[in-house]
């Protein structure tokens, strides 16, 4: 079990604290899930550089290719790492006819943003974890190709080992259901190869 300070920082030898205030966007009072990402950058430092920009997007942790774990945001703060969430009931084929109609209308009015707005009127677990109630973990990793042909590289074995450890510790410490741990494309409209080979 992890010790987490009042500031939301993990106190453990395996975690290096390197907080970027620019990626923190308000208080997060509850955690319902974890979302695993890949950076699309070749080094941790290039991602850290982007995290210093005003209004930057980012995640709570970054795992370098050698397996080093960096905490980059407080676990008590929201980071913008998910984007527009998918509909849980549509993804699991468990929508009522009324909900199907409401989702279609929301999509018609605003496409993915409209569907996201509709989903965010729901409480978890009726919706997927979102920015306001999930921890983001980035794996340093590039993609090959352009546009829809982009394919993310597989995480290194060291990244997967660190990811398994970190997710197991977060699940235990924060009482997160293991079923609520997702690769980014499972919860949002992202490249389907992102974090596809990540193991936890």
TrEMBL record:
Known EC number: 3.5.1.28
SUPFAM superfamilies assigned to the protein according to its UniProt record, in alphabetical order: N-acetylmuramoyl-L-alanine amidase-like
Keyword vocabulary terms for this entry: Cell wall biogenesis/degradation, Hydrolase
Keyword match Metal-binding: no
GO molecular function: N-acetylmuramoyl-L-alanine amidase activity
Reaction(s) the record says it catalyses: Hydrolyzes the link between N-acetylmuramoyl residues and L-amino acid residues in certain cell-wall glycopeptides
Gene3D superfamilies per the UniProt record, alphabetical: Peptidoglycan recognition protein-like (3.40.80.10)
InterPro entries on file: Amidase/PGRP_sf, Amidase_domain, NAMLAA_amidase_2
Start and end residues of each N-acetylmuramoyl-L-alanine amidase domain: 21-193
Keyword Cytoplasm applies: no
Enzyme class, spelled out: hydrolase
Top-level taxonomic group: Bacteria
GO biological-process terms attached to the record: cell wall organization; peptidoglycan catabolic process; peptidoglycan turnover
PANTHER family found in the cross-reference section: N-ACETYLMURAMOYL-L-ALANINE AMIDASE AMID (PTHR30417:SF1)
Protein name, as recorded: N-acetylmuramoyl-L-alanine amidase
Originating organism: Caballeronia pedi
């Amino acid at each position: 079990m992890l010790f987490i300070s009042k500031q939301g920082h993990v106190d453990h030898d395996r975690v290096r604290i390197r907080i970027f205030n620019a990626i923190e966007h308000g208080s997060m009072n509850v955690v319902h899930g974890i979302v695993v990402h890949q950076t699309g950058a070749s080094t941790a430092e290039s991602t850290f550089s982007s995290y210093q920009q005003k209004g930057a997007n980012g995640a709570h942790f970054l795992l370098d290719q050698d397996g080093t774990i960096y905490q980059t945001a407080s676990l008590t703060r929201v980071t913008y790492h998910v984007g527009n969430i998918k509909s849980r009931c549509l993804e699991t084929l468990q929508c009522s006819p009324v909900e199907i109609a409401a989702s279609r209308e929301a999509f018609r009015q605003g496409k993915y943003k409209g569907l996201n707005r509709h989903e965010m009127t729901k409480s978890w677990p009726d919706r997927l974890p979102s920015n306001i109630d999930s921890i983001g973990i980035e794996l340093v990793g590039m993609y090959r190709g352009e546009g829809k042909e982009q394919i993310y590289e597989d995480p290194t074995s060291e990244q997967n080992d660190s990811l398994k450890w970190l997710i197991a510790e977060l699940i235990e410490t924060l009482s997160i259901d293991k079923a609520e741990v997702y690769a980014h494309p499972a919860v949002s409209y992202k490249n389907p190869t992102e974090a596809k080979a990540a193991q936890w």
